Amino acid sequence: MTIRPTTSARSVDEHREHVEQLLRPLALRDVAEVSMTEVLGRVLARDVRSPLDLPVFRNSGMDGYAVRAESVAVTPVTLPLAGVVAAGQTGQTPLPPGAAMKVMTGAPIPPGADCVVPVEDTRVDGSEVIVEKGRRTGDFVREAGTDARAGDLLVPAGTLVAPRHVAALAAVGLARLPVFRRVRAAVLTTGDELVSAGASLRPGQIYNSNGIALASALAVNGVEVVSVEHSRDDAGEFQNKLGRATEVADVVFTSGGVSKGDFEVVKDVLSTRGGDFGTVAVQPGGPQGVTVVDGVPVLSFPGNPVSTVVSFEVFARPVLRELSGLPPVPKCEVPLLDSARSPAGRRQYLRGRMEIDGVALASGPGSHLVATMAQADVLIDVPEEVTELAAGSLVTVWEL
Ligand code: AMP
Ligand code: MG
């Protein structure tokens, strides 16, 4: 598919589908082992079964007194205190008939006991305990294997590991887990005017924000960022750095150098390598390029910081989340609190800020307004054919 020239630009949906077709083959496949501290946010590659019973042993669910239910059938009753069992205690002293043994939450139930009277229902009198409220067999006793049995499926393959899964996996003592290797991405920014944060600016220079912005967007969408590099607007340097990026990554993102200026290094170099460069009917982010370099998809976004972020959100984020096993970003319809205009024939993505009763415009349409974008928490999707939106119109938004 070729991106059409401006006069009949490709639609957003067509371009996104094109990108998705290219990236889908990167679906999670290689399995890696990670430690428990790295498993959060990863996708399990295999079913994980419990290696043991949970609870591991019969234990007390309360701080209280382990007794036989028959001993406390009639209350109040005074029982001799036969000892104390702390959590972590390994020895197992049996409960003498008719006695009580003090137990802490999580401590093994002494053999012979069949329920626990909570400490608040008792009083101690020297070496005796007075039980004021009776309990039935099984009360506050956590039987072994009632949470999971050895061999039970604990977390199925394909699960995106959340803190609750980590808790279960850790509770059965697993130290290493099989997960899918993440999609690896490289970011390559371009522009002679750009310098890294920390350096001082000379006249005409600006700081490079797209490199780290793209890397951050990739990371929070489950992608492993393996390289973030910058190239001057120099064909040789760009070729070199692109070559290294395609060696280490499954997909490469470039920023800048795709418009109609005099030094469009990305477009110039990649057009000679089969790149598909043209205009998508979208604002911001119209100029877009897609190339496959040595088998590696290279997505080329325009350099304006808002265009870069919107391009990522619209064209790359949905498929990357799918590839990472993350749920789709939810979209919802809300009233627009301001009025807005939109160019005919172009789908516009406005930056919005969610309020209680709808979404407010967070910024003007300028694609250089990077600081203002920080105040937005959603993108507002304005269809191609819409040119005016009155306050109160329903618009589709999704979270940035
Ligand atoms: P370009 O797409 O290269 O024509 O760049 C469009 C605008 O975005 C220019 O004002 C550039 O200075 C700016 N720009 C390009 N790349 C970056 C970047 N990595 N970080 C911040 N601004 C950029
Ligand atoms: Mg440039």
Description:
- With about 400 residues, the chain is α+β, with helices and mostly antiparallel strands.
- It contains 7 helices and 28 strands.
- A hairpin with a 2-residue loop joins strand 8 (about 120-125) and strand 9 (about 130).
- The chain binds adenosine monophosphate and magnesium ion (MG).
- Magnesium ion binds near residues 190, 191, 256 and 303.
- Magnesium ion binds near residues 190, 191, 256, 257 and 303.
Question: How are the SSEs ordered, and which strands pair?
Answer:
Elements (H helix, E strand, L loop, with lengths): L11 H12 L7 E5 L12 E2 L9 E2 L3 E4 L9 E9 L14 E4 L11 E4 L3 E4 L2 E4 L9 E2 L10 E3 L7 H9 L4 E5 L3 E7 L3 E2 L10 E2 L2 H11 L3 E8 L3 H14 L2 E5 L9 H7 L4 E4 L2 E2 L3 E7 L2 E6 L3 H20 L6 E5 L4 E2 L5 E9 L2 E4 L8 H4 L4 E5 L5 E2 L4 E6 L1
Parallel strand pairs: 5-6, 13-16, 13-17, 14-15, 17-21, 19-24
Antiparallel strand pairs: 1-12, 2-11, 3-10, 4-6, 4-7, 5-9, 8-9, 18-20, 20-21, 22-28, 23-27, 24-25, 24-26, 26-28
Give the name of the CATH superfamily of the largest domain: MoaB/Mog-like domain
Spatial separation of the terminal alpha carbons: 29 Å
* Low confidence ranges: none
Sheet having the most strands: 6 strands, mixed
- CATH architectural name of the largest domain: 3-Layer(aba) Sandwich
Helix content: 10-25%
Strand arrangement in the largest pleated sheet: 7-4-6-5-9-8
Short description:
The chain folds into 4 domains: 2-28 and 182-324, MoaB/Mog-like domain (Molybdenum Cofactor Biosythetic Enzyme, Chain A); 32-54 and 151-180, Molybdopterin biosynthesis moea protein, domain 2, CATH 3.90.105.10; 59-142, Molybdopterin biosynthesis moea protein, domain 3 (Molybdopterin biosynthesis moeA protein, domain 3), CATH 2.170.190.11; 331-399, MoeA, C-terminal, domain IV (Beta-clip, Beta Barrel). Helices cover 19% and strands 31% of the residues. It has 7 helices and 28 strands.
